[in-house]
Specification:
This protein is mostly helical. The protein has one domain (6-404): Glycosyltransferase, CATH 1.50.10. Helix content is 55%, strand content 3%. It has helices at 6-20, 34-37, 41-59, 88-104, 107-110, 112-122, 138-155, 158-172, 200-215, 228-246, 270-287, 290-307, 325-337, 344-365, 389-404, and strands at 198-199, 255-258, 264-268. A three-stranded antiparallel beta sheet has the order 1-2-3. Helix 4 packs parallel to helix 7 and helix 7 (138-155) packs antiparallel against helix 8. It holds the Pfam family Glyco_hydro_76.
């Protein structure tokens, strides 16, 4: 994943100030009004259906005349941006296809699985001859592996799971540490062709992968490589490193990275909070250790109280890498909301927050004709406006999150 666009950098300055001050002026999210609360599950299902269909119609390369073998999600709608220099959004596009398939059972979504399986490595700009799924960005490979695990989860086809395991074993865990190497003393590397940096965006997803490989270990058969316990040990080790080095235990902020001089870059982004709380929640479910749950809740509250600076929602994010950040947060946030172990006060706060965000987006940010979302919460794209893949995916992920949100 390219790090980071200029527009995202300027946003980060605002968020960094919030993190460094401990968010002395937390955002107050108004309770949902009656009109917001009245939206039914059918409403959210229709929104999710419309936006998933729009993803296929406007971004799936093979949909367009002359590109029938382009089994790849284009970076811009309606052939507006055909670059293949962005690998990681492919994972999140497939995540949305998995969401839609698991929700509807429609073969329209399932049929994309084998096509994408062929096309994603083919169009990967940095693939190697020995492994076309390889990429110089470690986190890009991690997002792909997480999507492959979900493809397995929705089909029980172990080829997806085994590929995710191989990627993790060969290309992700291999960048851990070394544990005696200062200043990091551990951590998963972000990118392999530049000065070493240990980033939240490479450690949170890595912990998630390891935890999920532990959960699905038995499905991989006898030739599963490492012992099952090794994956849990590694998940805990990665998570603990991120918590000790990039998590502010006082505020709940998840910082961006640690460079070779030991300096912490205190940018705070919603997706890093999402994967950190996602990993914490996954480890809580495996181990029952309530400290993991407390960490997840702390990180979630930081996003709500100190990053939702746009009148109670997160920042506008039009295209680029930043377009995906909020969607990743919502993907893991809704899993935390749905956990019956979450206390009532935080459940009510979290439920109201995600409902408010989704309602603002659905009512104001989505073009009801094209069903596209451009990254602007309160201004829908025009009918003929080009939209970036990353922003639209955030819209899809939030609508899918509302479809699985549980009410107490």
């Amino acid at each position: 994943m390219k790090n980071l666009l200029i527009t995202v950098f300027f946003l980060s300055l605002t968020l960094q100030l919030s993190a460094e001050t401990g968010g002395s002026n937390p955002v107050i999210v108004e309770k949902t009004t009656a009109s917001l609360a009245e939206k039914t599950p059918v409403y959210w299902q229709k929104m999710a259906d419309g936006m998933s269909q729009a993803l296929i119609k406007h971004f799936w390369g093979a949909n367009f005349k002359g590109y029938e073998n382009r089994f790849y999600f284009n970076y811009g709608s309606d052939l507006s941006n055909m670059t293949t220099n962005h690998y990681w959004p492919q994972a999140h596009a497939m995540d949305v296809m998995v969401d839609a398939y698991m929700r509807t059972g429609s073969k329209q979504y399932l049929n994309i699985y084998p096509l994408w399986w062929e096309g994603a490595p083919k169009f990967n700009f940095a693939g190697r001859e020995e492994d076309p799924w390889w990429n110089v960005f470690v986190d890009d490979m991690e997002w792909i592996a997480l999507a492959q695990i979900r493809m397995f989860e929705s089909t029980k086809n172990t080829k997806y799971l085994k590929k995710a395991r191989q990627t993790y074993d060969d290309w992700v865990w291999s960048t851990w540490g070394p544990e005696d190497e200062a200043p990091w003393f551990g951590g998963i590397t972000w990118k392999t062709d530049v000065a070493k940096s240990k980033n939240a965006c490479s450690n949170g997803p890595a912990a998630l992968i390891a935890a999920r490989l532990y959960n699905f270990y038995d499905a991989m058969g006898k030739k599963a490589g490492k012992p099952k316990q090794a994956y849990l040990n590694e998940a805990i080790k990665i998570y603990t490193w991120e918590k000790n080095n990039l998590f502010d235990r006082q505020t709940g902020a998840v910082y961006d990275s640690m460079n070779g001089e030991g300096k912490i870059t205190k940018w705070v982004f919603s997706y890093n909070s999402g994967t950190f709380l996602g990993a914490a929640h996954e480890l809580y479910k495996i181990t029952g250790d309530k400290q993991y749950l407390a960490d997840a809740v702390k990180a979630a509250n930081f996003v709500i109280d100190h990053l939702s600076i746009n009148e109670g929602v997160l920042s506008d994010a039009e295209g680029g890498d930043g377009g995906l950040f909020h969607g990743i947060f919502f993907r893991y946030f809704v899993k935390l909301i749905n956990d019956p172990a979450l206390d009532s006060a935080n459940y009510n706060k979290f439920r109201d927050y995600i409902t408010h965000c989704a309602t603002v987006m659905a009512e104001q940010g989505v073009n009801q004709k094209t069903m596209l979302y451009s990254g602007r919460w309160r201004k829908a794209p025009a009918d003929d406006e080009s939209v970036g893949l990353t922003s639209h995916l955030t819209g899809c992920m939030l609508m899918e999150a509302m479809c699985v949100l549980k009410h107490r």
